[in-house]
Amino acid sequence: MRKIFLFAGTTEGREIASALAEHEAEISERGGAPSAEIIVFSATEYGGSLIEDSPYLRRRTGRLDEAAMRRLFAEAPADSLVIDATHPYATEVTENLKKAASSAGLALIRVDRAAGEESVRLPESAVLVKDAAGAAAWLSGTEGSILVTTGSKELKEFTVIPDYRNRVYARVLPLPEVIRSCMKLGFTGRHLVGMQGPVSERMNQAMILDTGAAYLVTKETGKAGGFPEKAAAAAETGCRLIVIGRPAPDDQAMNVRQCLHHILP
Predict the structure, then answer these.
(1) pTM of the predicted model as reported, rounded to 2 decimal places
(2) 84: Cβ–Cβ under 8 A, 6 or more apart, which residues?
(3) Contact call for residues 101 and 107 (beta carbons, < 8 A)
């Protein structure tokens, strides 16, 4: 039986998992045999918990390096499929998946939330930087409070900002291990906010006003990542956006609708 390896962890990944499970359920109701073994991967247990339970999906959590991916794909039938629906900024994972799938001779679909999505117009005052280190370097020459909404993975970069313990407010996932890692970096008390995104425009406004943030740091995560709501909230409150640009798009990437149309009959 062919296998579908779905690397999720995003809204798009969850949508695809749900659609594949529903398709298999319909086949089962008609008395047919399963069309594929569907395995959904997420980096964390929390990410896995967001995937709806289904007897037609098998969930696996934990990060895989390229070698582990190669071993996994080498055992799969030749007509198996790899779906990369990881975060737009997870460039290392995407590159590893490409190499591992190619090595095993398996087809790969890259799902990009930007495919077919109209971009959000940035205000003229917005500062576009390459990465978190670039954002921190630019902010080091400023004054005023900073609301960082890029997650915990690159939060260490912002510790170079003078007086960061008092200036920077970090919004991260409300997971014990994430909170602990942020506290070790010196983010504590009201300077550390655990919240699951995407966040509404009103909530973004409230947090900007409550922290007195003069700057809001965000990645260009598109509609699914709540970027329009952040941009609108910043514009409404007079907060300046510091935007970490999205990695170069893959010309062969598909959106969720295109991906499902390609897979399902």
Answers:
(1) 0.75
(2) 7, 93, 94, 97, 98, 108, 109, 110, 111
(3) yes
